[in-house]
Amino acid sequence: MRIVLVGPPGAGKGTQAAFLAQNLSIPHISTGDLFRANISKQTELGKLAKSYMDKGELVPDEVTIAMAKDRMEQPDAVNGFLLDGFPRNVSQAEALDEMLQHEDMKLDGVLDLEVPETEVVKRIAGRRICRNDSAHVFHVSYKAPKQEGVCDVCGGELYQRDDDSEETVRKRLEVYHTQTEPIIDYYKAQGLVVTISALGKVEEVTGRAMEALKREDDAA
Ligand SMILES: [Zn+2]
Fold it and tell me: CA Rg, the chain, in Å?
């Protein structure tokens, strides 16, 4: 199965992608991992990407597309993959279509994780991270520490990352609306989009997603 996962920041996309990929026995290909892998292995594409990032510039679509293509051609991706973070705009989506057509392949579905904007802001802006270990994550509403501002695990001080401030979240949502949401319409025109609610427990969302993908697969 070849799937693209889309959803706003705070939809739990990374977590869902990992579970779904495991359930479907296909690799989870995330743009973040692609960049990290290419940069740490110092591939030509990695060096190129880094040169833009070092200047504080956006990595051009061609570089991201080439990295994704390279990854999708690895042997573990022959039977499918789950893309997370790519494509992130219509021109990347068009490039992906071209790539797949060239190999006589097509996408099986585009899973759209839906979360109300107020919930996105609440989810992200409520996050608190431990200064001693960034894996100690709490949330003021959903996973409150026993004592406010103190890590349950190690007693460290909890803080809010700059990235998680309400202002930053609203900016990220704006970018999502203008750049990424149009790909949903692009894929709707191909009849590929299945929308599910990303509210509720992680395993509930995974269950919903698996069912929706199964229906999509049966219909195809
Ligand atoms: Zn801690």
Answer: 18
For the chain, domain boundaries = 2-219
Catalytic residue among 123, 127, 128, 208: 127
Q: What is the pTM of this model?
A: 0.87
Distance 161 CA to ligand 1 centre (A): 15
CATH 3.40.50.300 fits 2-219, yes or no: yes
CA 51 – CA 173 distance, rounded (Å): 26
Exactly one of 50, 69, 170, 172 is catalytic; which is it? 172
Instruction: Determine the Cα–Cα distance for residues 195 and 216; give it in Å rounded to an integer.
Output: 11
* pLDDT computed for residue 220 by the predictor: 63
Count CB atoms within 10 A of the CB of residue 2: 19
Over residues 197-211, the pLDDT tens digits come to 999 989 999 999 999
Contacts of 194 (CB under 8 A, 6+ apart): 109, 110, 111, 112, 212, 213, 215, 216
pLDDT in tens, 80-113: 999 999 999 999 999 999 999 998 999 999 999 9
The catalytic residue among 50, 69, 88, 170 is: 88
